[in-house]
Amino acid sequence: MTSALRYVGQAAVLVAFAGVVGFFSAAPSFRHFPEGQALLKVSFAHGGARRAECRKRTRRELAEMAANMRKEMDCPRGRVDLRLEVDLDGAPLYQATLPPTGLAGDGPSRVYERFVLPAGRHVLHLRLRDSRRNQGFDHVTQKVVELAAGQSVAVDFRVGEGFIVR
Amino acid sequence: MTALQRILRPALWRLDDLLSRIFGPAWNPLYNLGALGFFFYWIVAISGIYIYIFFDTGVTEAYDSVAYMTEDQWYLAGVMRSLHRYASDALVVVMVLHLIREFAYDRYRGARWFSWLTAVPIILFVLASGITGYWLVWDQLAQYVAIATMEWLDWLPIFGEPIARNFLAPDALDDRFFTLLVFLHIAVPLLLLLALWIHLQRVSRPRVNPPRGLAAGSFAALLALSFAMPATSHAPADLAKVPTVLDLDWFYLGFHPLMDVWSRGTVWATAAVLMLTIAVMPWLPPFRRPEVARVDLDNCNGCARCAEDCPFNAISMERRSDGKPFDREAVVNSSLCVSCGICAGACPTATPFRRTGALVPGIELPHATLVSLRDALDRKADTGSQQVYLIACEHGARRETIGHPDLAVATVPCIGALPPSFIDYLLSRCGAAGVYLAGCPQGNCHFRLGNAWTEARLEGRRDPILRKRVPRERVCWGWFAPHQSSGLRRSVEAFLRDVRGLPPQEAPSVRQLSTRFDRSREEGGVGGP
Ligand code: HEM
Ligand code: SF4
Ligand code: SF4
Asked: Is residue B106 within 6 Å of ligand 1 at its C-beta?
């Protein structure tokens, strides 16, 4: 190979390398989210009630315990499962039983769900059970959301405030 | 695996050869992929430090500070930002090519598993560095990447509260969490540097700097790209909106689209299977390791040349253990030795001229001893004087020269395993007309340094040197890849014609012949290769 040809070759290889690097650094583009749709996220972390009431230990029980462990109240740490139901425009959208986290089952239950919806006005019915009851719900709300295309809205839950749209 | 190697190898030989013609072997980018990786890492580090000066780590300020660099200070900070991005992308390109080559050329099994296995965290750290980098711009791409990554991580039951909740709504993201992301983008590249250092622990004299010309050329290419296509941002992030169409950096974000198609668990499983497969490849299939080099203390004088030349740091010089009046002795670490024999080629006691005692050098491979090599050569000398010898490496070109009527051919595990004194021996004792040494292409020795050391020894630049008295016109060497055996044949035939044109070599004297035969009888003539 003549040296002129070699220089041309070197330039060609380097240009091709830079070309590949430059091109794939921002192309081809990728559609992550469909047109005309909106995103609804339902997410919260919330601890349900303890599995059982605190209970006063009997004198006998206390006597049998090691001295440094002696506490009058026996409070089980485990929490109940939460029950969450979401209806969209009158039809069920999401229903789940959310177990507590943590090895001892004493952490908050968590949920993080994404739903792609057509843009427009939607009615959400939200129901959550977080107590020891077996039937019915502790928090029941209706929310109306007006979603523009490409909008992202989150339904969260906070103690005291209940369900909120963020 | 081996079937895949067989498909890849011929293509790589040709590509290597093409680039060696264009760049010359020393500058061949394919022979410098690891070095280029380091070079790009340093470009990323320096440009990163520069743009960090202008970067504001607040959620609302980050985007504007990046925009300032690209728009207001485009000529310096903007260029640095582009270099930072493009050198990172180039790093992925050379890393993938480097992986493919080490695999295709089978340079990752046996004792060489270490560099391979320690590269698995490198792959992860490289990708993690790039992904965390894309968060910092805090544009729509950053928003998409951050949320998709966090949602993916949340699949693992390790976080009390889903970390993706930090991006739930515009008011969810605070400066503290954002600062944590910035910290990750600094910490992970530092871990990468540590992993790279570990990666190279078992190779001696690793090539971590590309030759200057290649470095200049690739830097110029990235700089030109930075001016021609400055790195830009998407629209600012807005957690009240979903990023829809994104110009992805496919080098780093190529896996993210899978998360829209597959479940998080499937993506995790795919990534885990992929990484595990790479990790266990050195043992798929198990490599039958040849015997490692063996030291013979009676013949070792502690000169340390073998330790100097071993390409895999497998020899250490330890305190003398046998009471001989030398300070040190060579000790082979069998878990590091790849059985290339280069140490035997370096040992000053590996000389076929020895009159007394058997030819046992200080160090050699038990399955490819120098005695067997000398006997094989001696037998070929018996078929007539004025022989031309071809001593060829097992890993280079050979096919078309085997059985050549005018050649006496012997093979060695690596051309660096041949002590230069053998050439002297063939020419001065066996009446050879010429000696031709063949090995892998320059810069691409299967055992990293064999052909480089050979050339340096023959040219008198490295011990043990080829003695001055050896007629240089009768010695030749050529570096050819396995697919170039016709090239080797042509080169050897040209050499044959040249040496045939020289006045005949002085026939060995009767006394020399008799010592040759006596000795081979006394040693019991171990079989040749
Ligand atoms: C950015 C990432 C990387 C850099 C900068 C890098 C750099 C290097 C360098 C400088 C060498 C020494 C080369 C020599 O002087 O002969 C080397 C050797 C090696 N690399 Fe990498 N490497 C990287 C990633 C990888 C990856 C991903 C793999 C494969 C999984 C890999 C596999 C190997 C192997 C097997 C060797 C040893 C070769 C031998 O035994 O001769 N490397 N690397
Ligand atoms: S090169 Fe030979 S003599 Fe020198 S230290 Fe190594 S084995 Fe011993
Ligand atoms: S054969 Fe010798 S030079 Fe080669 S790796 Fe083993 S000890 Fe090192």
From this structure: no
Question: Ligand 3 centroid to B341 CA: how many Å?
Answer: 5
- Tell which of B237, B259, B283 closes a domain: B283
Which residue of chain B has the CA closest to A107?
B160
Ligand 1 pocket check for B112: Cβ under 6 Å? yes
Same domain, B378 and B518: yes
CATH code of residue B139: 1.20.810.10
Show Cβ contacts of residue B183 under 8 Å, excluding neighbours closer than 6 positions: none
Is A1 in Cβ contact with B161 (below 8 Å)? no
DSSP type of residue B78: I
- Using CB atoms, pick whichever of B93, B217, B249 lies closest to residue A26: B249
**Alpha-carbon gap: A165 to the closest alpha carbon of chain B (Å):** 9
Between the CA of B204 and the centroid of ligand 1 the distance, in Å, is 12
Answer yes or no: is B289 within a domain: no
Say how far apart CA B379 and CA B426 lie, in whole Å. 12
Instruction: Enumerate the residues of chain B whose CB falls inside 8 A of the CB of residue A154.
Output: 168-169
Residue B410 parent element (H or E): strand B407-412
> Whole domain around residue B420: which residue ranges?
294-523
Residue B318 distance to chain A (closest CA, Å): 47
CB atoms within 10 A of CB B248: 22
ipTM score here?
A: 0.89
A32-50+80-165: in CATH 1.10.40: no
- Residue A17 near residue B93, CB atoms below 8 Å: yes
Selecting from A24, A30, A101 the residue whose C-beta is nearest the C-beta of B246 gives A30
- Closest-CA distance, A57 to chain B, in angstroms, reads 32
**Phi/psi class of residue B30: alpha, beta or left (left: φ > 0; alpha: ψ in -120 to 50)?**
alpha
On whether the CB atoms of residues B232 and A21 are closer than 8 A, the answer is: no
Binding site membership of B328 for ligand 1 (Cβ less than 6 Å) = no
Q: Is residue B243 a contact partner of residue A33, using CB atoms and an 8 Å limit?
A: yes
- Classify A39 as helix, strand or coil: strand
pLDDT tens, position by position, for chain B (529 residues)?
689 999 999 999 999 999 999 999 999 999 999 999 999 999 999 999 999 999 998 888 999 999 999 989 999 999 999 999 999 999 999 999 999 999 999 999 999 999 999 999 999 999 999 999 999 999 999 999 999 999 999 998 877 788 999 999 888 898 888 999 999 999 999 999 999 999 999 999 999 999 999 999 999 999 999 999 999 999 999 999 999 999 999 999 999 999 999 999 999 999 999 999 999 999 988 888 899 999 999 999 999 999 999 999 999 999 999 989 999 999 999 999 999 999 999 999 999 887 666 789 999 999 999 999 988 888 887 766 788 999 999 999 988 888 888 889 999 999 999 999 999 999 998 889 999 999 999 999 999 999 999 999 999 999 999 999 999 999 999 999 999 999 999 999 999 999 988 887 765 554 444 444 433 333 322 222 2
Q: Distance (Å, rounded) from C-alpha A60 to C-alpha B292?
A: 73
Report the domain count for chain B.
2
